[in-house]
Amino acid sequence: MSDSQSILVRIDQKYDDRQRALIGDDIVEFIKDRTRKGLDVHNKPFKAYKKSYVGSLQFRQAGKSADEVNLELSGDMLIGLEVLTHGPGFIKIGLGDGSDNNKAKWNAEKGRYFLGIMPQDLADILSNYPLGEDDTTVAEVGRTFADEFLRSLFK
Amino acid sequence: MKDVFEKLRQAMLDAVTDKSFLQSIGEWTKDRIVKRTRLGSGVDSRGAPASKLKPLSERYKEKRKELRKTGVLSDLTRPSTSNLTKTGKMLDSLTVKAGDGRVEVSVTSDQEQKVKANTELGRTFLNVSDKDLKELKTMLIQRIAKAIKK
Hints:
The complex is a heterodimer of chains A (155) and B (150). Chain A is 44% helix and 12% strand. Chain A has helices spanning 17-36, 51-54, 57-61, 76-79, 98-109, 119-126, 137-151; strands at residues 6-10, 81-87, 90-95. A three-stranded antiparallel sheet of chain A has the order 1-3-2. The model of chain A has no long low-confidence stretch (mean pLDDT 93). Chain B is 54% helix and 9% strand. Chain B has six helices and four strands; from the N terminus they run ααββααββαα. In chain B, strand 3 and strand 4 form a beta hairpin. In chain B, helix 1 (2-17) packs across helix 6. The interface between A and B is medium-sized, with 27 and 42 residues.
């Protein structure tokens, strides 16, 4: 139904495969956090929801409040945001799942843009990844540990 | 070197087994389950994608219309809506127990029969979905990253 909702983020070609994966994940988390705070791609508050939506059963079922414009109903769309692919000099971020993609397109059509990152915000993320310093091993150990722990987390 | 990794592993373990942290991710999981179910979706097994709950029978819809008239049916549902909500008590009873590195989300004992009956009718909801696990992994990674930086 909908066009692919994704963005291409340009970064220095010197970042290697492991660094790009970590930077990509950081960008995804930045976009999710910003959106959950109710801020759009330009760090401005989202346009208010329509009264009809605020009064809907779905809105109440999700336990939302009218002033909480954060593009979350079930919350699945934002969780679905991910690094789609990356290569030398670029990271592609978007929504792989068809249903999430449709939701993102619907939000964009309503004038609520969340897919993107401002240059300064990207620069802040990249400052954690100085070129020439491969400091990804500890982060990767942490990810492996998180995977293992998650398997036994729930009774 | 082995000692360094041992210390790193212990720091990560301490960070993710902290009781208040486990309680917070348990509460997050509980809220996800309640919200998802109220919106009409269930999860068949751990890690499966959420899917729409099986529709209600016509007979049961008629019964729920009566319950609406008498004020018994929760205002978080409609007579024809399949979202495991009649009075709302079952979903409201979800509780979290956290400790010993594990989390349990369950209903109170007086609601267990309802969960069992719904499961037998093909409406399973008390599970973590693929997306729950994806987000929980992110929470764990962020928690570990903070602990490692210290």
